[in-house]
Design brief:
Layout (H helix, E strand, L loop, with lengths): L5 H15 L3 H11 L5 E6 L7 E5 L2 H13 L3 H8 L3 E3 L5 H6 L3 H8 L3 E9 L2 E10 L7 H20 L18 H14 L3 H15 L3 H9 L15
Helix pairs in contact: 1-2, 1-7, 2-7, 3-6, 8-9, 8-10, 9-10
């Protein structure tokens, strides 16, 4: 994994959200344009396996790669979501990947993808989906390029979570905590429980609501009523 400081990563994520939000597709287009050798991207939204909704595909190859993973139930996207960590397949013709995904790997090669990199979209342990990047030739995603791809993945996570808010408020906007008092109060409590800034606490709150398929107000109400604490669950994990 790249050695990028947490502060630098958060700064880069905020820059990407500000530059390309609120449209997730535009952010993904910028990701493809900004990473050398990457031919396209696909973004799948999911809250559990095997459920999967293809939200975005930059080109026909990406669309087919996403569809294959939905139909076959195997591939880097499936594993990245299940494990919560990136899956970086540098050459699908390699025997390791062919044996790991016996149905998917040959089909993806036939579609035009030689290398695939799946990056999970998550906040804490709440998982929202995966962004898949492909190359039409063998190659790696490492160092600064991997750090940049991970920043794009976290920016996409923030945009997906922002869509759950009235008006699609983005982190950093003046409306971030103003839409409902109970959410504002719960955000402050989560911030105190986890020892994190308010904007990060709000992301954790929204991510938990998203992953559990509950209304944000309901989750906030449980926090305020002290029926639920983030420091007593896995949702306090680093993200």
């Amino acid at each position: 994994m790249p050695s990028v400081s947490s502060a630098a990563h958060r700064t880069r994520v905020a820059q990407l959200v500000a530059a390309h939000g609120p449209d997730v597709g535009r952010l993904c287009d910028a990701c493809v344009a900004g990473l050398p050798g990457v031919g396209g991207a696909g973004l799948a939204v999911m809250t559990s396996l095997p459920a999967q909704h293809v939200r975005y595909a930059s080109d026909p190859v990406s669309a087919q790669v996403e569809e294959l993973q939905v139909v076959l139930g195997q591939g880097p996207c499936v594993e990245a979501f299940a494990q919560g960590t990136p899956v970086l397949a540098t050459d699908l013709t390699d025997g390791h990947w062919l044996s790991r995904w016996p149905a998917f790997a040959p089909a993806a090669l036939g579609a035009g993808a030689r290398a695939l990199f799946a990056l999970p979209l998550h906040a804490g342990t709440a998982r929202l989906g995966v962004i898949d990047l492909y190359r039409d030739g063998p190659g790696t995603l490492a160092g600064e390029d991997l750090a940049e791809a991970l920043a794009f993945a976290d920016a996409a996570t923030q945009l997906l979570l922002a869509e759950q808010l009235p008006g699609g408020s983005l982190p950093g906007s003046g409306r971030l905590f103003s839409h409902r008092a109970v959410v504002h109060q719960a955000t402050g409590m989560v911030s105190a429980q986890l020892g994190v800034p308010m904007d990060e606490a709000f992301l954790r709150l929204r991510a938990h609501a998203y992953a559990t398929e509950r209304h944000l107000d309901d989750v906030a109400g449980d926090v305020v009523a002290r029926r639920f604490r983030f420091d007593e669950t896995d949702d306090d994990a680093s993200w």
